[in-house]
Amino acid sequence: MAEFTRFAETITVKEDMRVVSITVKPIVSDCTGRIWFTDLMVQEGDRLTGFMINPETLLEKYREDDAIVAPRFYNGIVRSSGTVVIFNLGSTTAGLDIPVEPIQDMAVGSIVLSQGAGSHKATFLEEASAGDTFSLLASSRECLRNGAATSKDGFFQYSAAGDSKHPITLEKEKSAKLYIEFQEMQDGGDVL
Fold first, then answer.
1. Three-class SS of residue 122?
2. What is the pTM of this model?
3. How is the chain split into domains, by residue range?
4. CB 44 within 8 A of CB 155
5. In sequence order, which residues have a C-beta less than 8 Å from that of residue 159 and are 6 or more positions away?
6. What residues contact 128, with CB distance under 8 A and at least 6 apart?
7. DSSP-derived secondary structure letter, 141
8. Helix or strand or coil: residue 135?
9. What distance in Å separates the CA atoms of residue 32 and residue 14, rounded to the nearest whole number?
10. Angstrom distance (rounded) from CA 121 to CA 112
11. Among 8, 9, 174, 153, which Cα is nearest to 78's?
12. How many Cβ atoms from other residues are within 10 Å of residue 175's Cβ?
């Protein structure tokens, strides 16, 4: 049976500079045996996070009384900014699908989703018109505006097991409707 070990390293950059590219060169020396590199990932912050499948365990939909629990959802209205607290009863992280519908027109980059204290940010890179729907969909790894592909800067969102906070920032004194949907997950059978 193969054993996978997760390693992490923090890369420090000047705060006033934007990272344009990163080159990663895994190097192994002075050892014997087989080595596999999987799931190399770079993300904002100094803590391991992310919506990743563990290579040792297959995930399955969260169950209660041997029945799959239906996807959960939260909805609300945010003015200027707010924080949504999501309760995830599953035993692991779950990707979030988040459609945001601006009630007023908003400037480019004024709709920002994030996690915790503001890390793992995602910013929509188009101006928003009232009634548009911007969707950041972790389940399908898509970013959409009114159903068509659009650009974003940042990360798909996820909910940690237990509860997690999700700050949402909009253009000052403007509002948007939001809808968050996710399928809670739990560890399944071993795949190795």
1. strand
2. 0.69
3. 57-190
4. yes
5. 86, 88, 93, 94, 96, 166, 182
6. 102, 105, 106, 110, 111, 134
7. T
8. strand
9. 38
10. 7
11. 174
12. 17
For residue 49 the two structure tokens come to: 């996070």
pLDDT at 93: 86
Residue bearing tokens 């020396």: 29
How many Å separate Cα 17 from the centre of its chain?
23
The span from the CA of 63 to the CA of 89, in Å, is 10
CATH top-level class for 57-190? mainly beta
Contact 157, 122 (CB under 8 A): yes
Q: 137 with 155: CB under 8 angstroms?
A: no
Region for residue 147 given its phi and psi (left: phi exceeds 0; alpha: psi -120 to 50; beta: otherwise): left
pLDDT tens column, 128-177: 999 999 999 999 999 999 999 999 998 999 998 888 899 999 999 999 99
The torsion angles phi and psi of 72, rounded to 5 degrees, stand at -100, 155
Summarised one tens digit per residue, pLDDT across range 79-122 is 999 999 999 998 888 999 999 999 999 999 999 999 888 888 99
pLDDT in tens, 19-55: 777 787 878 888 887 777 766 777 666 666 555 555 5
Output the six-digit token pair for 164: 């997690």
Q: What is the DSSP string of 87-107?
A: EE-SSS-EE-EEEEEESS-B-
Alpha-carbon gap, residue 22 to 39, rounded angstroms: 16
